[in-house]
Amino acid sequence: PDNACPGDRAVATITLNPEYIAKSYFPEKLLDTLGLETVGSRPRRIKPERRSKGREPEEAITTELFVMGPRPAFRAWRSSLPNWEEDLSGADELSTIEQVTAPSAHDKIKGRLPKAGKVVFEAVLHGDAGSGSNGVVPMFREYLEEIGVRQDLERKFSAGGLCFVELEAPADLADDIATFSPLRALRQMPTLRMLRPTFRSSRVSMADTVFPMKAPVDPKIRAAIFDGGIPKGHALTKWATVIEPPGIGKTIPDFLQHGVGVTSAFLFGHIDPAKSLGKPYAAVDHYRVLDTAPGQNPHELYEVLGRIDQVLVDKHYDLINLSIGPRLPIEDDDVHAWTAVLDDRLSKGTTLATIAVGNDGDSPAKDKLNRIQVPADCVNALAVGACDSPESPWQRCTYSSVGPGRSPGLVKPDFLEFGGTLKRPFIVVSESAKGGLEATEGTSFSSPSVLRLAAGVRAHFGANLSMLAIRALLIHTAEGSDFACEDVGRGRVARSVQDIVLCDDDAIRVVYQGEIAPTRYIRAPIPVPSMTIPGKV
């Protein structure tokens, strides 16, 4: 319909033949001749009609381009194509194209929707939020009003050439909403997940915990955790500064318990009750971003993301951890708001982020409900799963969500860390003001435990080693295995900071401020704390 094509412009998809997905084959001249511009892309699996050199067609992954342009341009292409000559600019690039399609409303609706009643939707639009009447959001607002939906569309995020918008509308208008041409995807807004353990946490029989009296190893490291908060006066507040965003609601006991456990895992890792606690590698800012019980606030997902995004925009942190996110397994064909926003904010490579993959690994595999949860598909962050033992032998915990990730980050999880099981739980500090310990399990705790290792490497090497280099070392020193990559990624992360900085007999290529030395290596064992890394390698 005319009103669904603002400015008489429409979006179509062009699927490339799998043999022509290299950048050198991109049909730039053809699109220029047609007056079309690319506004996005996504991977797609197809079986082409033909292959070169007479080979039999096989199913393969290719690229689907989203192109936008005036509707008369599409009509002119259709009518003029039979008369094209070989010398026409871009005509030789026709062979790169397998299919041209106008996406239907049904194609854009993701997942199942309720049959009736009001629904909070997430609409994904091509283009950023824009400003003035020419922005995609004002045009979308005007279109919604024409079909009887009045929304201010104030809750929105822009990242990666897409705009993610929250709106509330009757379920039976979903097809009409999805007809808007610049709309890429429409789904019911998922709920927020907090990675609760699969068994109820239990108190470990032990006297009051004796906390170390010393300051962190490196007080210059800036770390942040986004979670459920820490009770006032708790012993962990000696190293964890609790920050509450403006306007946030009251604390919730279950969230506080989760927040204390996650913070404990970052400060002390998996605690051995028979040993005293060592001093943390770094202090941490704990941002309480959760204030509503699950399912009670349909707008919580964007509210929580907004609190996180505001911090990442306003402040710089070396290390961050997320053990929360949408209750939604990743999809191969579309990115979600949490993933897009976090990937955009982490794209500078100056912050190392760990994200828990989720605890749905034992959900039905045939429906892909066991896949890693959003936003663990971020390519600019480490996705951390859970294994069942801090020693050998080890294997993936059945609850730990599995890969593969979404292209181009297919290897997800990146690796595993001990996360606890019912037989051998992960031990953290209790939320009790008196201290004590608590037995639990989940990727919520394996993820910050990896961030603790990263803090230890930074504390040893100092600022001479970039966050990108530390990420490379964590992956490089992971303990490989014969398990499927979808289950364990690159294996189990190193057991200690010393295993990373000394690395036995392995040769670690030196990475200095993002530059990889072509020929020089450091071979262990080396007294790393006293080693001086030159300005140029």
Strand content: 15-25%
Helix content: 10-25%
Distance linking N and C termini: 62 Å
Strand order of the largest sheet: 13-14-12-15-17-18-19
Average the pLDDT over all residues and give the rounded result.
88
Number of strands: 23
Round the Cα radius of gyration to an integer and report it.
Answer: 25 Å
Segments where pLDDT lies below 50 for 5+ residues? Answer: 504-537
Number of helices: 12
Secondary structural class: alpha/beta
Main β-sheet description: 7 strands, parallel
Globular, elongated, flat, extended or rod-shaped: what is the shape? globular
How would you summarize this macromolecular structure in one to three sentences?
The chain is α/β, with parallel strands linked by helices and 537 residues long. The protein contains twelve helices and 23 strands.
Walk me through what this model shows:
The chain is an alpha/beta fold and 537 residues long. 21% of the residues lie in helices and 24% in strands. It is built from twelve helices and 23 strands. It has helices at 28-34, 71-80, 105-108, 136-146, 174-178, 253-268, 300-314, 337-345, 443-461, 467-476, 485-488, 497-501; strands at 9-16, 37-46, 60-70, 97-101, 109-110, 118-126, 156-159, 162-170, 183-188, 192-194, 202-204, 223-227, 240-243, 284-288, 319-322, 324-326, 352-356, 382-387, 415-418, 426-429, 437-440, 507-512, 515-523. The strands form six sheets. Strands 13-14-12-15-17-18-19 form a seven-stranded parallel sheet. The chain has a five-stranded mixed sheet with strand order 5-9-6-8-7. A hairpin with a 7-residue loop joins strand 20 and strand 21 (437-440). Helix 6 runs parallel beside helix 9, helix 7 (300-314) runs parallel beside helix 8 and helix 9 (443-461) crosses helix 10. The longest helix is centred in the last third of the chain and has 19 residues, at 443-461. The radius of gyration is 25 Å and the shape is globular. It starts with 8 loop residues before the first strand and ends in a 14-residue tail after the last strand. The model is unreliable at 504-537 (pLDDT under 50).
